[in-house]
Design a protein that fits this description.
mainly alpha; two-stranded antiparallel sheet; 5 helices; 72% helix; cell wall biogenesis/degradation; transmembrane; CASPL; CASP/CASPL
Length: 186
């Protein structure tokens, strides 16, 4: 008789209810959003405060490198700032999902905007990484020289700022997947 009961879909009484699993997913979603805020905001601040000045022959002639010398880095800072702002604004919805684990419409909205922010962050990080690669390696065919031999501090900071942004991309992928799993369980 027990086999017949299992065939009809009756499970054991120790199974976790769906609301509990969704609540756990919502708590993980909230924590991942906080970590992503730290990564993207840190990347924007690190890139936005990057500059280095080198003297050339005399103290009166100097070469400088700043993030806003290249529009790609400006786009990187703006995109990371927008994503950080969005994440801060999405925290109340994430808290709502912890309290009301069955909320479907707000999860759909979060999936939509999370995907849009993922695309923006990916575009900014990819464009900036191409410029960072050129700064490190140069391109002999285009007569672009590697500047990282002279501007070491500048290159270290712009390379480091990419880490938080690419970490944010990975976390956004996890956020979208978590929201989709939670939505499928509602």
């Amino acid at each position: 008789m027990k086999a017949g009961a299992l065939e009809l879909g009756e499970g054991s009484k120790t199974s976790i209810p769906r609301g509990g699993v969704n609540r756990g997913i919502s708590i993980l979603d909230f924590i991942l959003r906080l970590i992503t805020i730290i990564g993207t905001l840190g990347s924007a601040i690190a890139m936005g405060t990057t500059n280095e000045t080198l003297p050339f022959f005399t103290q009166f002639t100097q070469f400088r490198a700043e993030y806003d010398d290249l529009p790609t880095f400006t786009f990187f800072v703006i995109a990371n700032s927008i994503v950080s702002g969005y994440l801060v604004l999405s925290l109340p919805m994430s808290i709502l999902h912890i309290v009301r684990s069955g909320a479907r419409a707000s999860r759909i909205v979060l999936i939509f905007f999370d995907t849009a922010m993922l695309a923006l962050l990916t575009a900014a990080a990819s464009a900036a990484s191409a410029i960072v690669y050129l700064a490190h390696k140069g391109n002999a065919q285009a007569n672009w020289f590697a500047i990282c031999q002279q501007f070491k501090s500048f290159c270290e900071r712009i390379s480091g700022s990419l880490i938080g942004s690419f970490g944010g991309i990975i976390l956004f992928i996890l956020l979208v997947l978590l929201s989709a799993v939670a939505l499928s369980r509602c």
